[in-house]
Every structure is written in structure tokens, then in C-alpha cells.
Write a structure and sequence with these properties.
This protein has 210 residues and is of the alpha+beta class. 46% of the residues lie in helices and 16% in strands.
Length: 210
């Protein structure tokens, strides 16, 4: 039997899906897979709703009461940054780092040890966060790790940060398409069912490569 690492009500982050934000464990079930025992965990994430995950596969990172992740390599959230700097938003260095968090791309999109196709798949999915009111808040939740990003940022600040994030996203997409310029078939496959904004961005970036 594996040790029950999680309990109902725990706050967790999926290390491979930081854009999901910080979720809350809603239910846990012990399951048997062959001779191995695992945990099936139901987690409610703020940006995508409830997900059912296997503990051994997901490797969920526990978030303690102060907002810090138990994971060794997790990207800090805005909450963690505020706690770490005490003065939080009043400190210029804290604000600078918070801006960096809000405009950074998720690791799976930029990881050089991940295949170009996988990085492109992750990058394309990020284009679902357009600048519309609802999507802007979903994006802010995913980026900041805050359940209510409006408690830290006003709408104008979020719009400005989102615009900077989009510049970074477009630049990263251009770099990826450069790697895959001789693999147009892969790009076309990844774009099947992709957000319209992603399809438009790919076409635009491909025109820049010609």
C-alpha cells in the first residue's frame, strides 16, 4: 500500500500544468493496478474545473497554509512571492518579480528537453487565453496562482501584463515554428481543434519565416 499523501481539502498544484492554478482536493480513492496500489485524486482547479488524477502519475505538489509549494522546482506564485518578501507589493523587487511571473510562459512550453511537437502543443493551447473579459481572468488565475487575481491587480494592470505575455507567447511560437519549418505536417496536426487565435498566430508567424 502506498502512503496516503493527500487528504480532502488539501491545496495542490500540478507540476506539469501550472496554468491550471492551485486546486483543492475534493475526493480520494485507493485503486489497485495489477499488484500495485495507487490513489485516484479528484481535484477542483480554478481555471478548468474538476480533474481526476492518479497520484503516482500527476505528482501533485502540496501547498501549505502560507501558500508555499512543497515541490522543489515549482514556479512560485504571486502569493508565495508576497509571503517571501514580507512587504510584498510595496517592495519594488517583489513587484518586478511578480510582473515576471505574470508574463512568463509555462515550463512545458519552453523546456528544451521536451520534443518540439510537445512544446508546440502546449504553446498552442495557451492561445485560449485571449484578451476577452472572462478569459483574461482565467489567464490571471493560471499565471498568478491566486483564486481572485483582482485582489492584487486592477483590470488595467492585468490587460497590460496580458499584452506583454502575448508578445512573449508570439515570440516563442515564432521560434518553435522555425524549428519545425520543415515539418509542416506536424504543425498542421497540432492545429486540429486548436483555438482560433492560435491558428491565426501560426499563419502570421509562418509568413514571417518566409
Amino acid at each position: 500500500m502506498i502512503e496516503a499523501t493527500y487528504k480532502k481539502g488539501d491545496r495542490v498544484r500540478h507540476p506539469s500544468r501550472p496554468e491550471w492554478g492551485i486546486g483543492v482536493v475534493a475526493k480520494i480513492e485507493v485503486v489497485t493496478r495489477g499488484e500495485a496500489t495507487d490513489l485516484r485524486v479528484w481535484v477542483r482547479f480554478p481555471s478548468i474545473g474538476e480533474k481526476t488524477l492518479l497520484a503516482s502519475v500527476a505528482g501533485l505538489e502540496l501547498i501549505d497554509e502560507q501558500g508555499f509549494s512543497s515541490g522543489m522546482h515549482a514556479r512560485p506564485s504571486v502569493t508565495e512571492l508576497d509571503m517571501a518578501h514580507g512587504g510584498g507589493w510595496l517592495a519594488s523587487i517583489s513587484k518586478q518579480k511578480a510582473d515576471d511571473i505574470m508574463t512568463a510562459l509555462v515550463g512545458e512550453a519552453t523546456d528544451p528537453f521536451t520534443s518540439p511537437r510537445r512544446r508546440l502543443e502546449t504553446t498552442v493551447k495557451l492561445y485560449r487565453f485571449d484578451a476577452s473579459a472572462g478569459r483574461l481572468i482565467d489567464w490571471a488565475v493560471a499565471q498568478s496562482g491566486l483564486d481572485d487575481p483582482m485582489s492584487r491587480f486592477n483590470r488595467q494592470e492585468l490587460q497590460q501584463l496580458h499584452a506583454r505575455w502575448m508578445v512573449n507567447l508570439d515570440a516563442h511560437l515564432l521560434k518553435l515554428l522555425g524549428e519545425l519549418r520543415r515539418e509542416r505536417g506536424i504543425v498542421d496536426e497540432v492545429l486540429i481543434g486548436a483555438p482560433p487565435l492560435a491558428v491565426k498566430a501560426v499563419r502570421k508567424q509562418f509568413s514571417l519565416l518566409k
